[in-house]
Write a structure and sequence with these properties.
The complex is a heterodimer.
Chain A: H1 6-17, H2 20-36, H3 38-50, H4 55-79, H5 91-116, H6 118-122, H7 131-139, H8 142-169, H9 176-205, H10 212-221
Helix pairs in contact in A: 1-4, 1-8, 2-3, 2-9, 4-5, 5-8, 7-9, 8-9
Chain B: E1 10-17, E2 26-33, H1 40-49, E3 77-80, E4 83-86, E5 99-102, E6 109-111, E7 114-115, H2 118-126, H3 147-156, H4 164-168, H5 181-192, H6 200-207, H7 221-225, H8 232-252
Parallel strand pairs in B: 1-5
Antiparallel strand pairs in B: 1-2, 3-4, 3-5, 6-7
Helix pairs in contact in B: 3-5, 5-6, 5-8, 6-8
The chains are: A mainly alpha, B alpha+beta.
The structure holds iron/sulfur cluster and FE2/S2 (inorganic) cluster (FES).
Chain lengths: 222, 254
C-alpha cells in the first residue's frame, strides 16, 4: 500500500471518455465518409482533419499520450482483476470481464494499427492522400480484415461499456434504474458506432480504393 | 447403526479441508443421514458427532464457525456449491447434491472452514464507521433524521460484515488492495446519519486513498450476492458521487 491510486484511476476513467471516446467517434465518422462519400468523401475528411492548426500537438496531447496512459494503466488494472464469470454468471459480471479482455485487445491493436498507418505516413511509405488505397491493400487481405473486424468490435465495446462505467464511477448514474437506462443507451452506442466502422471496412475493400498504380495498370491493359 | 432392509436416505458432502493456514487443501467426502429441514450447519454437527468419511474410514471432525444460527452474525459464511453464503441458512432440501463446501478463499483460512475475517473489521476502522460523540460533557440530543432517510439507512445497517460481497468481488484479491463493497456502504450509512454527517469528509477521504473506492470495477456481483439484500452498488455509486464532489471542493479550496 503505497501512494494513492485514487487520482490515477479517476484520470484513467476521464481520459477514456474525454478525449479518447470523442476520438473514437471522430474516427468512426471520418471512416464512414469512405462509405458515404467514397474515395472523394474520405479524402475530404482526411484533408479537413489535417488542416487543423497545430495538428501535431493535437495528435500528441489529444490522442497519443492519453492512449498511452489509458492503455498502460489499464493493463495494470486488468492484471489486478480476477475473472469469475464461471462462478458468477451475471450479465454485468460478463461486461466487467469483457471490458478487461477488449481493453487488452484494443491496446495491442491500436499499437499495431498506429504502426501500420500513421507511422507509415511519418516514415514516408505512404501519404495522407493515399491512405484510402493503403487501407484497401490492408483490408483486402483476409487475415487483416478479420483482425480489423474483431478489433473494431472490441474497441467500440470497450468504449461503450466504459462510458457506462464512467457514469457510475463519477456518481452520475446512482440508482439501479439510472444504471439500467444508461446501459441500454450505451449498448445502443455500441451498435451504431460498430456499424459505422464495419461499413467503412467494407467500403475500403471496394475497387474504388484500389491503389492508383493498379488503376493505371488496368488503364494500360484496357 | 443397525442394518435395515430399506436403504437410509443420505446426503453427500464434499468438503474442502486444510490442517493449518499454510497447509495445502484437500477434499473429503461424507454421507450424512438425512433429516427433514436440516441445513449445512446441522450436517457439519453430524460430522462432528460421527467423523466417518464415505469410504467408512475415520477422520478428524471438520472445523467451522457459527454463532447466531439465524443469518445475522455472518460467522458461518462459506462457499456452498460455488456460491458464498451463510451455512446456517443453507437448507439441504434446496441444495443440489453432492453439496460442495469450501472456505471463502478471499480470506486467510485458519483451518478447514474457519476463516479470518479481520480485514473486514480493519476496513471499518479505516473508514471510521462509527459516530464520534464521546466527550467530557453531555452534548444533548443530536439532530433528528428524516423518516424517509431512516428507512433506506436502516437497510444499510443490516450489514453483518460476513464478507460474502468481498468473496464475490473479482477486484478483491492478492493483487489488489481494494477495500471491498461492505465498508463503502457503511460510509454511506454513517454519512447519512445527522450526527455522523459532521465527520463525513473524514470517511470520504479514507476512501480516496490507495485501495479505496477507486478499486471498484462495477462487476456488480456484490449486490447480487449480499444475503441481506443491501443495495451495495447504489451505495458505491452514491459514494462515488460524494468523493467526486469532495475532490472538486478540495481543489477549489471550498
Ligand atoms: S454488505 Fe452484505 S455481503 Fe457484504 S458483508 Fe455486509 S451483509 Fe455481508
Ligand atoms: S451462524 Fe450467524 S449467520 Fe450463520
Amino acid at each position: 500500500m503505497s501512494g494513492n491510486s485514487y487520482y490515477p484511476r479517476k484520470l484513467h476513467s476521464l481520459l477514456g471518455v474525454i478525449p479518447l471516446g470523442l476520438f473514437i467517434l471522430e474516427h468512426a465518422l471520418t471512416n464512414y465518409s469512405a462509405f458515404e462519400g467514397g474515395k472523394e468523401g474520405f479524402l475530404d475528411s482526411v484533408h479537413g482533419l489535417h488542416s487543423l492548426p497545430l495538428i501535431f500537438f493535437l495528435e500528441l496531447f489529444v490522442i497519443w499520450l492519453p492512449i498511452l496512459f489509458h492503455g498502460v494503466y489499464g493493463l495494470y488494472l486488468a492484471f489486478t482483476s480476477d475473472l469469475n464469470v464461471g462462478r458468477f454468471n451475471y450479465g454485468r459480471n460478463w461486461a466487467f470481464a469483457l471490458q478487461r479482455i477488449t481493453g487488452v485487445i484494443t491496446f495491442i491493436f491500436v499499437i499495431w494499427h498506429f504502426w501500420q498507418t500513421r507511422m507509415q505516413v511519418a516514415l514516408g511509405n505512404t501519404t495522407y492522400d493515399d491512405l484510402g488505397n493503403h487501407m484497401h491493400d490492408i483490408v483486402t487481405q483476409p487475415v487483416y480484415f478479420i483482425i480489423y473486424f474483431i478489433a473494431v468490435l472490441a474497441a467500440v465495446f470497450h468504449f461503450a461499456n466504459g462510458l457506462w462505467a464512467f457514469l457510475v464511477s463519477w456518481g452520475i448514474t446512482v440508482g439501479p434504474r439510472a444504471q439500467r437506462v444508461s446501459s441500454r443507451i450505451c449498448m445502443g452506442i455500441f451498435v451504431i458506432v460498430s456499424v459505422l466502422f464495419l461499413l467503412s471496412l467494407f467500403a475500403f475493400r471496394g475497387d474504388e480504393f484500389a491503389s492508383a498504380s493498379a488503376a493505371i495498370d488496368t488503364l494500360r491493359l484496357g | 447403526m443397525a442394518d435395515t432392509a430399506t436403504a437410509k436416505r443420505t446426503v453427500k458432502f464434499i468438503i474442502t479441508r486444510r490442517e493449518r493456514p499454510d497447509a495445502s487443501p484437500y477434499t473429503e467426502e461424507f454421507d450424512i443421514p438425512y433429516r427433514p429441514n436440516m441445513n449445512v450447519i446441522s450436517a457439519l454437527m453430524e460430522i462432528q458427532r460421527n467423523p466417518v468419511k464415505s469410504d467408512g474410514t475415520k477422520t478428524t471432525p471438520v472445523v467451522w464457525e457459527s454463532n447466531c444460527l439465524e443469518e445475522v452474525c455472518g460467522a458461518c459464511s462459506m462457499v456452498i456449491n460455488g456460491k458464498p453464503r451463510q451455512a446456517c441458512s443453507a437448507l439441504i432440501d434446496k441444495l443440489e447434491q453432492p453439496i460442495r463446501v469450501e472456505p471463502m478463499s478471499t480470506f486467510p483460512v485458519v483451518r478447514d472452514l474457519v476463516i479470518n475475517r479481520e480485514r473486514m473489521f480493519q476496513a471499518l476502522k479505516r473508514v471510521k464507521a462509527w459516530i464520534p460523540i464521546d466527550g467530557t460533557y453531555d452534548l444533548g440530543p443530536g439532530p433528528r433524521m428524516a423518516e424517509t432517510k431512516r428507512q433506506w439507512a436502516y437497510e444499510l445497517s443490516k450489514c453483518m460484515t460476513c464478507g460474502v460481497c468481498l468473496e464475490a468481488c473479482p477486484n478483491v484479491n492478492d493483487r489488489s488492495s481494494f477495500i471491498g463493497p461492505a465498508p463503502i456502504s457503511q460510509v454511506r450509512l454513517f454519512n447519512a446519519h445527522p450526527t455522523g454527517e459532521m465527520n463525513a469528509h473524514e470517511r470520504l477521504e479514507a476512501l480516496m486513498t490507495d485501495g479505496g473506492i477507486e478499486g471498484c470495477g462495477n462487476s456488480q456481483n456484490c449486490v447480487r450476492s449480499c444475503p441481506k439484500g443491501i443495495p451495495l452498488t447504489t451505495s458505491i455509486a452514491a459514494i462515488n458521487k460524494d468523493t467526486t464532489k469532495h475532490m472538486f471542493k478540495r481543489w477549489l479550496g471550498m
